[in-house]
């Protein structure tokens, strides 16, 4: 069903009543007058996947497990209060996956601006959480079983993951959080931070113990967007520290770092600790200046690298100055890699300097 088509409430009700006993998946995006309570109609049935789009949910009864088989829930541009959201999750005793995309979070009386509401999300059963285009002052995930958290194009004053001892994959892409905090990292295997911005985090430098971490991708720190969230604390020291990574993540095998100009992050590769288990190293750049010196510095602290993947960005229009610098860059590359002939080298170039997310560019393999 799609909101491009207009249906009468009676016809939609008839269709749902006819199919609800055998319906396993429902993707609902319909505007009717009067509105229809899909949750009441499809409750206590065999429904396993439910997606609601441009829908309003009011007055959810707490502790009412009316969807005994549902494992996947997607709410896109759904208007719901923070209280009703948590009550709704209790209606799904087998829920494993939740997606929130462009939610309209409100208070019950709509007296507070939605972005100022603190969301404490708790569902003891779900394993995967996907957040897209969410803007909240404070977002706290309280869950003991969640395994994967995927955050895309979101803006938070504070984002915290508490009490999740089973978290294995955390991805934070093109998002902003003035405070980003993960409480438990004992089972974390993949950690990705891509083209995002933070002011305070226990990840930069690494302050949590992640003994199982295999992949750590730190792919660019973006400028701070103006989202209106006010945090009184001053900006803290944001750094990628090789000593801290080595101490906290001794099993790390895949390290990916994007070096960029400016003062957004301090890349501290020094000290006495080595990341001896890193065998795959990815390095990206947005400037020729001193790049291969940086590569050598990182390789020094990753002595067992078997494959090096270099990502670079090339403007669509190249002037004479760029071509000269590119030639010098290529010469430096050849001279550097002569020292590391045992390492397999792969070079990937994108077309445009203006991309905000190098990972999503089209890469050319040379």
Mean of residue pLDDT values: 85
Which series of helices and strands comes N to C?
Answer: HEHEEEHEEEEEEEEEEEEHEEEHEHEE
Number of E-state strands = 22
Number of domains: 3
Q: What is the class of the largest domain in the CATH system?
A: Alpha Beta
Fraction of residues in helices?
10-25%
Assembly type of the chains comes to single chain
Task: Tell me about the largest β-sheet.
Answer: 18 strands, mixed
Reported CATH architecture of the largest domain: 3-Layer(aba) Sandwich
Q: Say what the CATH topology of the largest domain is.
A: Rossmann fold
Number of helices: 6
Q: What's the N-to-C terminus distance?
A: 46 Å
Poorly predicted sequence stretches spanning 5 or more consecutive residues: 355-366
Strand content: 25-35%
The SS-based structural class is: alpha/beta
Rg over CA atoms, rounded to whole Å, is 24 Å
Protein name: F-box/LRR-repeat protein 15/At3g58940/PEG3-like LRR domain-containing protein
Domain F-box/LRR-repeat protein 15/At3g58940/PEG3-like LRR: 42-102
InterPro entries: LRR_dom_sf, LRR_FXL15/At3g58940/PEG3-like
Keywords: Signal
